[in-house]
Amino acid sequence: MKSKRLSAVLLFIGLMLLVGLMQPVMGCSQPIFSPAGQQSDTFVSAILDTPVELRPNQIAQFESEQLNVAFINVSADSRCPADVSCIQAGQVTTVFELWAQGQDSQKTSIYLTLRAAQSDLAIQQIENYTVELLEVEPYPQTTQAIKPEDYRVKVVVSQG
Predict the structure, then answer these.
(1) Sorting pLDDT into bands at 50, 70 and 90, what band is 4?
(2) Which regions of the chain does DSSP assign to beta strands (E)?
């Protein structure tokens, strides 16, 4: 029984390797699998000092820096809906994870918040990098709730 399972696993691995090797021959320009085994649309190529847009669980790869920045989710959104007049503007808080590219790298979680007149909450320095949250979309409306997967953020990573 164990040998049948082992044979099945080895066959699966062999097929995956064959598909990966055949990819250039078949004219595929995008990788079928990402380095972490996730679908390739999970990863976005990014450049320092250039804003990048991410959706939840999407990862910006800064190849020149061997750095990954993942937008995990929006942990709180109390922004005043666009179709209402509020006394306070509210705020939106996001969760990111950063780690060096490589298998033994530890992830660091950071929280960035957009709040009127407090731009310092949207910026955090981690080691040699500064991460700044620029924008969170969509903006709330009273007529429609925002699904977690509908959020998009714009973030910029710089050195120093």
Answers:
(1) low
(2) 43-45, 52-54, 58-62, 67-77, 91-100, 108-115, 123-126, 129-137, 152-159
